[in-house]
Structures are given as structure tokens and as C-alpha cells.
Amino acid sequence: MPETHPHRDRSTSEPVDWPQAPTDAQSRPAGRALAAGQLTIRSERRDSTYVVVVVGELDLATAQRVEDELLAVEATDVEQVIVDFAGLTFVDSSGVHLIARAEERCRTAAKRLVLRSGPPQIQRVFALAGADMLAFAA
């Protein structure tokens, strides 16, 4: 039986491409931009992998939502968790720390955490924080 969660897409067994960061039309109503401090999270299970897409600003105000989502995903029987940062516009140290904690939890639980790189300004924050050694994929 597929896992469901109030803000997750339902899993499917049909072969499809991995989700990419949502476009403006997918992540917010037409004609409206995400306001400062807003974050959209979309997660979807595909077989033994969960993809968590975060769009907007990952900071002290939004980090707990991402942490809660990752904890819920990690509690499932998936083998791999992909976190897609392509839609991030801002990240601060609280976002960097939550990803470092998620990486540690996944390693301890024998799950693979893969981070899809964000825009250059996002990757720069991880590099400046010394967290660029995390498993970022293109």
C-alpha cells in the first residue's frame, strides 16, 4: 500500500522521471511570487527513494518544517533520500545545520542522503559553512 502524507504526493509504481524543482506555475498561484520567508516543500516516494523538493527560503523561520518532513521521510523504509535545492533562493546556518543532522541520521540508519545542488549562491553558503563536503550531486 502506498504511503501517504498530508503534504506528500502519492507514490506510484509507474516509471517516471525524477521530479525537478517546481516551476513558478507549479509552486505557487499564477501571478504571485513567493514572499520573503516562504518555503514550499514537495516530497514524493518512488520505490525505495523519497525525493524532497524545497523551494524558497530555508532559514530559522522555515527550517523546522523541513526538519519535520525529513524526519517523517527517514522514518519510512526507503533506502535513499534525495533533497533537491534547485528552487532555493536563500539558506542560512539553520538550514545548513539541519542538512548536516539529516546526513548523520541517514548514515547511522544506513540510508543514502543525496543533495541536489542549488543555485550558486546556495552552494556558496554551504561552502562557507564548511559543509560542502556533503554528498552534493549536480
Kindly describe this structure:
The model is unreliable at 1-35 (pLDDT under 50). Helix 2 (63-74) runs parallel beside helix 3. This protein has 138 residues and is of the alpha/beta class. It has one domain (24-137): STAS domain (Transcription Regulator spoIIAA). It has helices at residues 24-27, 63-74, 93-108, 120-128, and strands at residues 39-46, 49-58, 80-91, 112-116, 136-137. The protein is built from 4 helices and 5 strands; from the N terminus they run αββαβαβαβ. The chain has a 5-stranded mixed β-sheet.
Keywords:
about 25% strand, about 140 residues, Transcription Regulator spoIIAA, alpha/beta
Beta-strand residue percentage: 25-35%
Give the ordered list of helices and strands. HEEHEHEHE
**C-alpha termini separation:** 32 Å
Number of DSSP strand runs? 5
**Total count of domains:** 1
Q: Write down the overall mean pLDDT.
A: 77
Question: Mind telling me the CATH superfamily name?
Answer: STAS domain
Identify the overall geometry: globular
Could you give a short account of the major beta sheet? 5 strands, mixed
